[in-house]
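S.,

Sequence below, as promised.
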Amino acid sequence: MGANNFSEKEEEGKTFVIIKPGAVRRGATVGIVEILTENGLWVKKIKRVHSITKDHLLKHYNKDQDWFLKVGNKEIKFLIQKGECPTKTAEEYGRDALEKVIDHMLSGPFYIIILKGRNAVTVVQGLTGIIRAQFGIDVIDNAIHRSDLGKETEEIELWEPYLKKE
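The prediction came back faster than expected:
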């Protein structure tokens, strides 16, 4: 290893991940972190969060009308495929989905993690399906949240106070 390896790593990308409460309850934390670190990432910071406010989660998820419609339309399509008749608008289904995510995040402790590595956001995006398939239960209790490209700095800044708490 060269003398500049540490400074080179500091120049690499970073991203933000949450290991959700259901995955923590099922003992999946170590397995998820192993998958991430075995794929070229390293943990810069990790913190177990025992309590969080609904307001903070709403800031984090900060979903807009387009998101509500996209998620709601997926739910309507799924219901129709099952032979069921939708009883709400797409927006209502989307808002219901957000409430379920918030309720899940309030259901127990979870881990927040800052990961570093070359193309960190893209690497985590590529691993999300593998992690969710192995450790998730459904679309709400899906094991992890990961930053979208371009959102990682904003999410890290939002969660930084929790990373500093004792």
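The first helix runs from residue 5 to 11.

Coffee later?
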